[in-house]
Amino acid sequence: MRKYAVCSFLICLFGLSACYEDDSSMGSDSVSDITIMGLEDLEGQSIVSYAGNRLQCSPVIQSGYADGDLAVAWYLFNTSAEETPNGYQDFLISTDRNLDYEVNLPPGTYRLVCEVSSLSNGLVKTATVDIMVATLFSNGFYVLKETPEGTTELDLYNENGLTQDLMADFAGGALAGSPRNLSVIYEGEFIDPETNETARGNLVHVMTEDNVYKGFKAETMTEVFNNENLFYGGPMDANEQPALFFMTMFYNCYASNTGIRIAQVGGDTPGTGKLPYPSSDGASKYLQIHGMDVVYWNDASHRLERTDYNINTVSPEDCGEYPGGMECISSGRNDNVGRIYFLCEEPATGDRYLFLYSIPMFMQTGFDQVLQVDPSTHLAKSRIISGNSQTGSYIYCVGEDHKLYVYNYEEGTETEVPLPGIDNGEEITYVSNPFLNIGFGDTSANFDALVVATRKGNGYKLYIYDEGMVGGMPTKAPEVVAEGGNGVVRCVRYLSPVTVDKNDLFSTYVYSWTD
Amino acid sequence: MAAALCAAWALAACEKDLEPFSSTDCHLNFVYTDMYGTVAGEDVTDEMRTSTYSFVSASAGTGTEVVRDTLWFEASTMGFLSDVDRTIPLVQVETEGRNARPGVDYVPFDDPGFLQLCKVPANTASVQVPIIVLRSPSLETEGDVTLKFAFGTNEYFSPGYKGLTERVLVISGRLARPNNWEDAYWGTYSQAKHELMIEWTGDAWDETFLDELYDGDYAYVDYIARWFYETLAEVNADRAAQDPPLGPLTDENGEEIQFVKR
């Protein structure tokens, strides 16, 4: 018995040793490591594409190999692109040791890979860094302004400074009518006139009180939509009042006085972005996502309404008793304090009412309450109003004294907001709290700012408070002050070249689309 | 015993050289789809295996009387590619009811002209399998016929996976419910409704047309569905305004025709 056990044991040893037979031909006495440094200097950088700008990097490569034994390759790919068979190696841009590459790429977040390999033993090491690629128009604060002639123009402020009067350059001139609204859409779908094929890209939509509408591909400010081609049913009727473009997880959406129209997006191939019939009987630019529903003010019926996520069924909100014939003048949403508001005014009396919702997570709770705004407050009289989006239960409003106040809708109190850097007496024409709150993907572009615009002659000054904000109030002078001409600011929206993951739209806002 | 087991484990744990794949057997499978794309394996249903072809719909779509037409069914190969064209073997499978007759309702699978079409081109793994249907007078006098066909065996191919090697084609001389008709968009099917859709748009509204429609922009599908709803409302309003007033349009069963308000 013992003999058999010993034999079995020896067979085990033999079997196991056979498993360790090394057929490798790569073995050498020693393998030197490779260290790559220098890419970290590019971290967080943004580079403007199609402008002759070059991506440059001179890496410091430390190893025990002779220089002639090392091969360097550079790769650059969009982090939101679909995976390819060879991964990053399908996107070679240079085999020079020092990178010097002119960037002519669509906007987005790109990953730069520096690959260093030993020619003698095949050892490969990589270093990576993410950079932002933008075009002249794909990134920044779009400023919708009313010209002295009462028409609508569009400016853009970004790291390149202020680019003015984009409608003159890209739409043949200022648009008839004073500004109604400005909307941005991430990953919109459209037919690209440059290729005559469907495509995806960020869009900027301009709407005026004369019902003029134009939609632009932000990357190049190419007009892709207008009153004539947005609807499958043909040109807009003369009474169509374009009011708002917004996004949900599955749809790109449009709201007007005739209702809400939606187009499913995100399929394997982009759609045309054109819209079918409306799925409700009226709407306005005051609209918010509430749980799995959409709640909005219907201008035609002068009431709040609710529809489901697919805009299939519409029902009036049960808000109790409130005056008829009201008009909505402001709406906002704050995910962090969990509130949605609609501020409405009774034209006959000037009385204002605040409709408040709590924001549920996956719950279908209803409307909370409607309050009459104390007539002695600034909110009861202000014409320049916008909600705080991230940090407080506030509504910003400009008083008749040209000072900025916050109305706390939980307490019904008002507090003056100091505006360091803005002279007393400057006429404020616009205020808002733009933000970017990417959750999935590149969060480096996230921000939360207070934008204040004042009138200066026939032009304006734009103050952007970003750092130093505490509870929605600035504590120091703004980093950015831009001066523009030919108009008074009526609306500001921020657009980033980052990719917005649809999962981000499930329960929170990535950016605000109302004032 | 334990030692023997250890020895067996030790030997089994050793690396074994594997032979590269060398089988020359090649097989064929059909590719099935639903409204949302390709469906595979156990998810394939009899409904996906069944198609309907209507000479009436096809004639409406072309504006001429169609008496002979070629339908294409997507298939894919298993096994090595070939540097020569390979004929696809097809066989008819008998079913209950009226079976399609070779040479009368469809071009026979051994027809020399048909064999020139029915092949996997060299160096390809995917193919469109043709079926050439013929319009027999008996379709209108005696009703629809069914052609159930499957991959057979020849020197190049044999059938692939069970459940993925057969298709059923209903050949009709009347309007028939397309297999990819979606009630959610077009409502309950009726011949009268189908005729209205063809009359109002001039399109075939057969399976091929619907496949192309679903393959495009869903917003456009929503638009067309609603357009039918709105158009019917206008037509019924005109009928109600007649003197004497006419009732809403009804189908062959006396039911009011209704479209979906998308």
Question: Which descriptors would you attach to this protein?
Answer:
heterodimer, A: 515 residues, mainly beta, Immunoglobulin-like, 5-stranded mixed β-sheet, 4-stranded antiparallel β-sheet, 40 strands, B: 262 residues, alpha+beta, 2 domains, 4-stranded mixed β-sheet
The beta-strand count of chain A equals 40
Rg of chain A, Å, rounded: 28 Å
Helix content of chain B: 25-40%
Return the average pLDDT of chain A rounded to an integer. 89
Shape of chain A: globular
The CATH class name of the domain at 34-134 in chain A reads: Mainly Beta
The low-confidence parts of chain B are none
Tally of alpha and pi helices of chain A: 2
Categorize the overall geometry of chain B. elongated
What is the CATH superfamily of the domain at 34-134 in chain A? Answer: Immunoglobulins
**Care to count the β-strands of chain B?**
12
Q: Tell me roughly what share of residues is in helical segments of chain A.
A: under 10%
What Rg of chain B is obtained from the alpha carbons, in whole angstroms? 25 Å
Q: Provide the CATH architecture of the domain at 34-134 in chain A.
A: Sandwich
The biggest beta sheet of chain B is recorded as:
4 strands, mixed
Task: Walk me through the structure.
The complex is a heterodimer of chains A (515) and B (262). With 515 residues, chain A is mainly beta. Chain A has a domain of 101 residues: Immunoglobulin-like (Sandwich), CATH 2.60.40. Chain A contains two helices and 40 strands. In chain A, strands 2-9-8-5-6 form a five-stranded mixed beta sheet, with no helix packed on it. In chain A, strands 12-11-10-40 form a four-stranded antiparallel beta sheet. Chain A has a four-stranded antiparallel beta sheet with strand order 13-14-15-16, with no helix packed on it. The radius of gyration of chain A is 28 Å and the shape is globular. Chain B has a four-stranded mixed beta sheet with strand order 9-5-1-11, with no helix packed on it. Chain B has a four-stranded mixed beta sheet with strand order 4-12-10-7. In chain B, a hairpin with a 2-residue loop joins strand 2 and strand 3. Chain B is α+β, with helices and mostly antiparallel strands and 262 residues long. The model of chain B has no long low-confidence stretch (mean pLDDT 90). Chain B has two domains: 146 residues, CalX-beta domain (Immunoglobulin-like); 84 residues, no CATH class. The N and C termini of chain B lie far apart (73 Å). At the A-B interface, helix 1 and strand 19 of A face helix 1 and helix 9 of B.
